[in-house]
Structures are given as structure tokens and as C-alpha cells.
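pasting input
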Amino acid sequence: MPTVTVTTRDGRTKEITAQSGRSLMENLRAGGIEEILALCGGCCSCATCHVYVDEDWLSALPPVSDDEDDLLGTSGARQPNSRLSCQIKVSDALDGIAVTVAPED
Amino acid sequence: MTHFDVLIVGTGHAGATAAIQLRQLGHSGSIALLGEEPCLPYERPPLSKDYLGGTKSADDVLFRPSSFWSERAITLIPGERVETVDPEARAIRCASGSTYTYGDLIWTAGGRPRRFPGAHVIRSLADVDALRAHLPDAHRILVIGGGYIGLEAASVLTTLGKQVTLTEAADRLLTRCSAEPLSRFLEAEHRSRGVDIRLGTPEIDHDTFDLVIAGIGINPNAEPLLAAGAEGGDGVLIDDHCRTTLPHVWAAGDCALHRNPFGPDRPIRIESVQNASDMATTVARALTGQPQPYRAVPWFWSNQYDLRLQTAGLSHDHDEALVRGDPATGKFAVIYSRAGRVIALDCVNNVRDYVQGRALVERGAEIDAALLTDPDVPLKSLLES
């Protein structure tokens, strides 16, 4: 099972054993990262599952859709490596990916 | 009698969020999350969408796994219904006879669906499980109510191949919260997918259907607080820090009657995840010595077929509803204003206008109608002007 390294807002790092086939957001929540609110449940309707993806992993991810791009635009904390974690499906190919929870807006 | 420093009644979005945020914000006292249902806290929005359609399981809709709550020392007390609240003794008594005392009480008991004889409802996992158990043998299904729950159910059931009839007592869909252009657009969309929509108190013989579902709103669960002397009526009244008029009693979510900074000049209730979650956070902040008044732009979403609806703001008492874009393209927005200020947007397959329009709502921007209705003019550019 793929492993995800998460840095939370207090700077602490945690390793999560993720489930392939589920979204990164679902895996972060199941892994106890309470900062991931994901209010809309993962249907790309809010921006409360915002993470920064380690630069080395950006190219392994599917491109940002127009909707995701627009929603990320609502965040004052957007960076070039910003993603909505509900839009990333975890697979073995992402084993070892590292993400940081973005600050609250 | 068991004591908790914070006792939360109701395990929906507001209750679960309050517990999570209290710990997140550093509360170290004892916390309990008490509710009527037998299961772990779960999310309700998928009940009328993916869970009804069978593409999400009961595990998929849980807020958090069970270990999450125990690891954070949040005590879950399932299967308890509160009958009375004694604000002087700071105690509650449940139907089971159990009593609990509290330092602070957070009332997030939500609402109960209005019933129609013989009809299923969609509010809890148990409701939808009961409904789904009948689905294999149900071909002709009647949905009563043209609000969001009824429309989402009609969408899922039609997609499952059912023959759906939807009745609405008013002369259009979504009368409570949206203007006519959105109502007529959704009416046409549902009809084109085979839903038989009957408007304006139609006479329908319920016996000709295999299954009947009512989505006709909720009544807030506030009676024990009102009986204890809390102010309110259609819900329990709270101030901008989510305090009720009873000492050490707070309320959040569907049952909370409040003056919304983005709403009309009277107390209202809002039934949405955003409202539940942000009010719960407001309470958690107050209880951890970091108070911030509730002032979040309301937002809401609905999915029907391949249509994504997103709403920002509150359209109550709007005096103008402008259409931006051509509904025939399946992508447009309805922009609501009151006294010249933008107060809300309903957006269909139009995340960009939703995102940019939200900023207009937040500022209460006064914008010329000709500019608002020109889809070639980005809403963002109007904010800057």
C-alpha cells in the first residue's frame, strides 16, 4: 500500500498508509489529519482540502482541471504547487508522495 | 450521572465539526458527542446523491474512522435522545433515563424531516437504507417536493432507470431559495431525462406508485431548549458567537436561528454544510478563548445528473434576479441583488462565476446590471473596478 508523508500546519510530519483507488483527501482524513475539512465531501465544490504537493511529485499528477483551477483561485494561500487533494486519486505510482496542508483561508 | 466539560448534542456536520475543532484549537477538557443514531458520525450530503445511488458505502460517508474519536478522547454516546435540558443544574436527561451534566452544552441537533403518510424520507442513513431496500422492486416512484432533496433524489433514481414522477405544490421548482430562470432550467433538464414533473398541487393517485418519497423540508429539533426557556421559535435563537439566551448553552447548524450578516434583517435558519461547519467553528473558538463572530459567506452545492450547481450568498428578499449567460448552453448564473447590491449567485456548471461572484457577495458590491449580465466581462474585473 502506498505511503503518503503529510506535513500539518504546526510543521509536524506524519506518514500515512494510504488506500489505492481512494482520493488523497479521503486518505488524509482517514489518516487523522483533521485540518483537511473537505466540506463538500470531494466533489470539487469547495477548496477546503487544499494541499501543497512536493515539487518532485507534481509531474506524476493529473493536470489541474478548469474547475479545480478556479476553486484554488479562491485561496489567498495558493502557490504553484497547490492542489485540491480530492482531485488526486492515490495509486501505487504515488507511493512516497509528500504533501503539506495549506494554511486556512 | 456523567459529567463532560463540553457536551455536544447532535452528531451531524455541526456536532462533529465542533468536536474536531475544539481539539484542534487546543481544548483539553472532556468532550462528548451524543446523538440519537446508533452509528459513527457521518456526512449527510451524499445521502441524496452517491449513497442513494449506491456508489458510496456507509464507510465512505463517515466523517472519520472510529479510531479518530478515541485517539482524541472524544467520547461518542450513540442511541440517546435528549428530552429535557436543565440550564440551572447544567444537566440533560435522555429518553433512556440517563442524565449527563455539562460545563458547556453545544446544541447541534439539526432537524427532523416533515412526514407524509406512507412516504419515505431522506435525512438519515437508516432512512436511505430503508428506501434502498425497496428499490429493486420499485419501478414507478413518486417524489413529493421540488426542493434540493427531491430533485437530487429524482436525478439519482432516474439514472438508476426508475420511472420518476415529481410533484411540487408551487407553480415552479425551488421556490424557497431560487428565482424563476433556475427553476425553469432545472424543470426542462429533469423533463428531458424522463422525469414527469407536475406542478401546482396536482391530483395524484399514490397507489399507482411502487414507492413514495417526500422531500418537503425539516422542522428544527429545538424543543428541549425552548422548553427550558431559550428564546427562539422556528429554531433556537443565537447571537453572532452562537450563544443561545441560556447560560453555557450554544447552538449551531440547521436548528440555529440567527441574524446572518449576508442575509435579511431578521433571524433565519440555514440548512447547509457551510453554515453547520462555520458555526461549529465559531463555538469552538469562543470556548477556547479565541472568539471571532460568525461572518462567513454562505455557500451551497447540489449535483443533479451532470449538472453542478453552486450557490454563494443568500437570495432572501432579492429585488432583482439577472441571468448571466445563456441557460440553453447549460452554463450560466443567476445573480441576485437587493437595493442595488449583489447578495447571491446560483451558478450552473460555472465554477468560475461562482468563485468570482462570491467575492462580489462578500463585499456587497454595487454593480451595473449590464456589466453583470455580460458573460464576456469577468466578474473578477468588476470587483476591481
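fyi The beta strands of chain A are 3-7, 13-17, 50-53, 82-84, 98-101.
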